[in-house]
Design brief:
Blueprint lengths: L3 H7 L4 E2 L6 H9 L8 E5 L3 E5 L10 E5 L11 H4 L2 H14 L7 E2 L3
Parallel strand pairs: 4-5
Antiparallel strand pairs: 1-3, 2-3, 2-4
Helix pairs in contact: 2-4
Amino acid sequence: MANNASLQRKYPVKLNLNEPFNHKDVQRLIASKDDTQNRQLRVSNDGMAYLSDVVGNLDLEDVAFCFETWSFDCGYCGPTAAKDSSWTQAIHKALLDNWPNPPCRYLDDY
């Protein structure tokens, strides 16, 4: 099981959903990884949201919920995606709506 220290090493930019967060925080998270490979937004059991390089159904033992895999080169993450207000607001709303009690572990409608 991954702990917060190992998450910090693997994913230095995280968003703590247990603390108040806003649209700008989500933009920072989305900008933290480029769009050159598949990514997945995951939320750990302790409420830390991060962009994972591991996608799909792999390494989910400490994951409360995750979003669908975002295919590379489609504009889901990176600095350009972070500037897309409608995209980042949708992600912000989905995080607020699903933490701390997600209706399911996999989100593909947000």
